[in-house]
Amino acid sequence: MSLPAVPASLPRSISTFIARSKELATADPIISYFCRLFAVEQILTKSLHTTDDEIAGFAMGLLDNIESFKKDSSAELLEVIQDKESSIAYVLNFANKIFATGLMAIQEQRVSKQTAMSLLASANFFELLQLWKEDAERVEELEDVSKKSKYAKFHAARILKAYKNGEDPNEYVPPRNEFEPTEESTDAVSSQTENKDEEKDIPVVEPEGSNSDNFGLPSVPTTISQSTSPQGPPQFIDDEPEPPKESLEELTPFSLPEPPKSFPVDSTDDLTLPETPKSEPSTVSQPTTQPVKKVEKKIDINEIMESSEVYSKAQKHAKFAISAMNYEDKATAVKELEQALELLAKLRE
């Protein structure tokens, strides 16, 4: 299932991870999957889906894509993404590998624009560890993730600035204790890198399980055989989309046909005769009761359509809640469930 189009209103801090996901879709499906998951988590945590309809639709499409990916994935791949410890080890190892390539280039004074791109990418991959908030402190303590991320952003900005000014970025001599860029340097990085559109074609280093021993986590498989079977429908395929506004207008003319005009006035002459068959009053009375039935039908249709919209919106909130629970975001899960319950309560009024 292809990724939905990214809305222009989606913040760059989130759309960057969609770009990373596309870059790694074939090279590393696991990291690609976590990039999409992180993007959805950011949308829900920041409640962007409640203020922008395009972002809400994008989030729904992204959730469908994620569920479809899980459904069509191999057992080996699922073994990694469904186990928290394996997932953390895999993401951390991948980020460290990309970071190490940039660090070595800096130390050997052979950096290029591609080095800057790799460093920016490694900072993004370190950020994926925030998917497991409860373990983030433990990971940080063992791996200095924040320090590595600041280092990567600092040198990425330095390298790109040097090229922009026509300077040689390799004239920089890295100090021994290079892992401590100043706060001013870190702030400069944010402004330098936020609007760069050159974050493409990251060098991909296939993760191995060798470095996970220091982290105290189980090793992850070095190769994952991704399923090549056609992708099936999402698990939430039974969710009905919100009915379009036009649907009610289209139904109204067909709610009940008008009775034929010739029916109540079958023979005006016969109405003046003293002798009238007993069955005839029933035929004459039908036109008077027919409009009443038509009004009742219209009301029923309106109520059905309104109920359908309420159910559809409640299902969306429930779906967001389930996604939030998948990455243990309790606050967002509770918030979305409460909104779903509020909508359902309206049907009881």
From TrEMBL:
InterPro entries listed in its UniProt record = Vta1-like, Vta1/CALS_N, Vta1/CALS_N_sf, Vta1_C
Q: Where in or outside the cell is it found?
A: Cytoplasm; Endosome membrane
Q: Which N-terminal stretch is annotated as signal sequence?
A: none
Q: Which UniProt keywords apply?
A: Cytoplasm, Endosome, Membrane, Protein transport, Transport
**How the protein sits in the membrane?**
Peripheral membrane protein
GO CC list:
endosome membrane; multivesicular body
Q: Name one GO biological process term.
A: protein transport
Region named Disordered: 166-294
Q: Which domain of life is it from?
A: Eukaryota
The Vta1/callose synthase N-terminal domain extends over 13-165
Does Protein transport appear among the keywords?
yes
Ranges of biased composition (kind: Polar residues) = 209-230, 279-291
Q: Under what name is this protein listed?
A: CYFA0S32e00870g1_1
State the organism of origin.
Answer: Cyberlindnera fabianii
